[in-house]
């Protein structure tokens, strides 16, 4: 099994598109990217913990690839908005692809570059790609 973590606005909105796919073992909502261990919802909403709402996806790479997950991610977010997603505003809703290893980083960066070059968006793709 492999793990991926994506942030793109409210984590509840990020669950459904992934959990419906074959090869997805689990999708779990939570917080990542911050410095306070085990923050509460209220602490994260205070914008003082550095956390981002995200989903952790455990998947079977024999049934679905990491590249497939990244492609799903792009359809669920506005990659041109660095300050939240849709009605969800603030740093805790920022769009981020968190990578586990160099292979995931390379796949995410290549996908981001291809999306930018596609001309689908008039504005730059600002989604961050960061280590977990």
Global Rg: 14 Å
Tell me the number of structural domains.
Answer: 1
The percent range for strand residues is 25-35%
Query: End-to-end distance, in Å?
Result: 17 Å
- How many strands, which pairing sense, and closed or not: the largest β-sheet? 5 strands, mixed
- Corresponding CATH architecture: 2-Layer Sandwich
Q: Major sheet: order of its strands?
A: 2-3-1-6-7
Overall pLDDT, averaged? 92
Work out the number of β strands.
Answer: 7
The residue ranges in which pLDDT falls below 50 over 5 or more consecutive positions are: none
CATH superfamily: Peptide methionine sulphoxide reductase MsrA
**Outline type:** globular
Highest CATH level, the class: Alpha Beta
**What is the N-to-C order of secondary-structure elements (H for helix, E for strand)?**
EHEHEHEEEHE
Protein name: Peptide methionine sulfoxide reductase MsrA
EC number: 1.8.4.11
Catalytic activity: [thioredoxin]-disulfide + L-methionine + H2O = L-methionine (S)-S-oxide + [thioredoxin]-dithiol; L-methionyl-[protein] + [thioredoxin]-disulfide + H2O = L-methionyl-(S)-S-oxide-[protein] + [thioredoxin]-dithiol
InterPro entries: Met_Sox_Rdtase_MsrA_dom, Met_Sox_Rdtase_MsrA_sf
